[in-house]
Amino acid sequence: MSTNYKGLLVRKLAGRKGLRRIKEYGIINEDKLNRELYDGVESFLMFIGYPRSGHTLISSLLDAHPNAIVANEFDDIGEWQNWIPTNRNKYFLFDQLYLNSKMEADTGYRSATVQHRFNYSVPGQWQGTFDQKVLVMGAKKGGHTTRRLMKRENMKLLKDIHRVLKIPMKFLHVVRNPYDNIATMMLRDLKKRPDAEEKINDPDNLDNQIAKYMSLAARNNQLTKVLPGDVHEIHSSELIKEPKKTLLGICQFLHLSCDQKYIEDCSKRIYPEASKTRYNVIWTDQQRETVRKKLQRFQSTRGYGFDD
What we know:
The chain contains 15 helices and five strands.
């Protein structure tokens, strides 16, 4: 592999967050799957939703499946746009996703040996590799993908990816309690971590985050009707309450067979309860009511309340 090509892979390996871990990863792993394996892929997976909804966990659990490779924090639409025309093909894209998956398992959030604030490793399963065949290839970027798809030119890029891949596209729409999403968006904007001893009081910022969330919700509602593929909705509360049932539903949606050990191992990685960051922020009664009313507009958020 030439030095220039290695440099290109460094820049494309894992998206923005992945670049922070390149130094830990060292030299670029030169493994690539052969074309016969890539030609056996039956569907391409993407995520839509909101920031901090559980996309990283779900994508990591899917990457642990023996017949799936799901990259983390990989902006496939943005990368596709930036690549030179000769790289806009199935084999180059799938190479990047595979390398991302390997790096995440070696030194990233899915590593069983490297310490991170969050860890999504599934010991005994197939993160960063596969068993004989790959049926699902995918990339996780969550809320960022929804923001990208607000622009018409990016919808055209998505359709171009679909045209080039010539396989069905599938989308996971991950939904968390909106009040927690909004609160977490505000905390991240202020560079604060949830603290049980401190409640953040910034009504103007909270209003901004409410507006951003509702914009994402409106677009996700539209996307479920216009995306070039099937959409499966996952509520993080259901994943916590009934992990095995929810995981089986995802596998069925992706036409992946799941043995009992895979389901058991993945279920162990699911948090016993959701983080309720809504209580780390001070809300006015009007803000709570504004959110409640606006959530009624969308099927996916209609049942949520502040005190759930």
